[in-house]
Amino acid sequence: MVFPNYLKTIQDEKDRLVVMTILESMNNVLKNCKGDALKEPGRLDEICKAIRNVLQKKTTCQDPENEETESDEEQEVGGERFCGDYSEQFNFTNICHRPEQPRNL
What we know:
Blueprint: H1 3-12, H2 16-33, H3 43-55, H4 72-89, H5 92-96
């Protein structure tokens, strides 16, 4: 499956457009393959971690040190657009949300 490459690219790629394209492709694979895309043990956790990293601006393409030409304001607007557009477009919240397990009393 393509997920290992997708997940590594999301974390390590410096070009924001490449990461945005990977997120879009990953979303399409998940929509088309549904549960089959998540059969690999640990895959769901890996995807959730990658999405959390994007939303928390912890990926290489979101590191301010990699931004050479943009002003601080452009970086902030671009970062907000990056996270906002993709978190809304991709319904990863439903995939990554885990209901609390009932406690035995």
